[in-house]
Write a structure and sequence with these properties.
2 domains, two-stranded antiparallel sheet, alpha/beta, globular, Glutaredoxin
């Protein structure tokens, strides 16, 4: 592929944990493939699964097969071509990781928030729901949480916002929640809860569900277009 795009594309390989791009988008699991800042492949696409995740068939598994190589090459070529054509948002829409297709509706939640209150899917019925997966060590998550708090203030009881902390220590989660003072539901994630939402390979990851519980959109990382895209989708639901 390097020869196919010689002089047009810079190919970079970075070591685990050393990628500033991956860190800026909250991606902690590898291998992860980006074209510019578009996440186009996650570990589960290649058949790699984290602790507590259910194994399944990734897009490019088994990766040792010629057919999987050809599929990956074709998908990556399509993403690169879209970026070169200036169609990054089309690339972002097409490159969304598997959960957007895999999770069709809001899972049957049964969680307890930081104040000890129980929350179920039934409690969220009848209004759009935003579910954010975040982590205390993720810099982009702070601004995203603040924005979600603003959305909740703006729309009040017409909207539910749930922030699920993953890979984070409870004292630090509580400290951030107390410092930010946002009118959203804070809870600690568990492997089972994360599994219910599919392969969450990056934080922040944001899911938008309609009043009927059906999945409307999923957003991975914190690209510059996140707020505009999510607010447009939410506005359509609230009309």
């Amino acid at each position: 592929m390097v020869s196919d795009f010689e002089g047009k594309v810079l190919f970079v390989e970075e070591n685990y944990g050393d990628s500033k791009l991956a860190k800026s988008l909250g991606v902690t699991r590898y291998p992860a493939i980006f074209v510019d800042d578009v996440l186009v492949a996650t570990p589960s696409d290649f058949g790699f699964y984290g602790k507590g995740e259910a194994e399944g068939g990734g897009r490019y598994t088994p990766f040792r097969s010629a057919a999987s190589h050809d599929r990956f090459r074709a998908d990556l070529t399509r993403m690169i071509d879209l970026i070169l054509e200036g169609r990054k948002e089309s690339a972002r829409a097409q490159a969304a990781p598997a959960p957007q297709a895999a999770i069709q509706e809001l899972p049957a939640l049964a969680i307890t928030d930081l104040d000890g209150r129980a929350l179920t899917r039934a409690d969220l019925a009848g209004r759009p729901v935003l579910v954010e997966f975040w982590a205390t060590w993720c810099p982009p998550c702070r601004s995203t949480l603040g924005w979600l708090g603003d959305l909740k203030r703006r729309h009040g009881d017409r909207l539910a916002v749930v922030a699920i902390a993953v890979q984070s220590e409870e004292p630090e989660v509580r400290k951030i929640a107390a410092d930010l003072k946002l009118p959203i539901t804070w809870t600690l994630g568990t492997p089972e809860l994360g599994l219910a939402f599919g392969d969450v390979s990056a934080v922040p990851t944001l899911f938008l569900f309609g009043a009927d519980g059906r999945t409307v959109a999923a957003y991975y990382g914190a690209p510059p277009t996140l707020h505009a895209e999510a607010e447009a989708a939410l506005a359509a639901l609230l009309r």
